[in-house]
Amino acid sequence: MRAFNRFHRRLGVDRDDADVRSTVYIAIGAGVLLALVKSLAAGMTDSASMLAEAVHSWVGTLTDGFLVAAYLAARRPPDETHVLGYGRESYVWSLFGSVAMFTVGAEVGIWRGIRQLGAADMDTEYLIGYVVLAGSFVWQAWSFAQAVSFVRKRAAELDHGLFAHVFRTSDAQLRTVVTGDFIALVGIVVAAAGMALHQFTGNVAWDAAGSFIVGLLMGAAGLFLINTNRRFLAGATLTPGQRATAIQALYALPEVKRVTYLYAEFIGPQRIVVAARVELRGELSQADLARTLRRLEQTIMEHKHIGRVTLSLAAPEEPDAH
């Protein structure tokens, strides 16, 4: 989840492939370096909590790779075989990262914690572990601050609260980064506390508990992200509030007299497909009706969140949509 801006801002459609590649290499390289340092510290301290944090970093780096694949998939333009674009593919790659977080991270953290409970107490020098965790905390806190700043701007655009946007956004990568960075910060604090309590009391159960809690945190976060990606892959629709806003936007078009049907489904990060039935103002010929509908479709598709729209004529007896 490192270097949030590199993944979320710079992997846009306005970047050339060379810039994207260099950005990806730097971000993933930094993640691998941090995971290696934590792994070395885990080997030197023989701390279960430190090992859980190292595994967490390796899983985070793997997830970063999936997120890059998700963004590269989502930015591909529509073609003849995928007229709605490739946005939904981003949920598949995000799902892979969520599964990795749940299975690998939770399993290793919990398993190592249980195993450590049966280990004999030993005098362990944790100084190197504290130094590594402190450096990791500073780096992770910077990354999390960047993520929160970006989310706050996105939330303001849609008139959402910060946390509401994280839970409701169709941008699975955004949610994964924020969730992963938050869990990483909490995990570092838990790991440091487990190591410190072990060192202070001489009871290895504290170190084991730290590893166990880190594993539980990763498992819970993984399950949350798995369920969210599943929902968008299955075809998530607009919330009642979003639907009401969409209907009002159609009524704001001068040519539209009534809206009798509206269906909108997310087809990728911040992208929806819309189908609606409308009654037009005035007495128009069949040809003029067709031209007006096509012109309205083009107007609506100028909105950055609309991937495709299809309008059809409503029958006079159809009730208004709500």
UniProtKB/TrEMBL annotation:
It is a multi-pass membrane protein. It is found in: Membrane. Keywords: Membrane, Transmembrane, Transmembrane helix, Transport. Pfam families: Cation_efflux. InterPro entries: Cation_efflux (IPR002524), Cation_efflux_CTD_sf (IPR036837), Cation_efflux_TM (IPR058533), Cation_efflux_TMD_sf (IPR027469), SLC30A9 (IPR040177). It comes from the Bacteria. This is Cation diffusion facilitator family transporter.
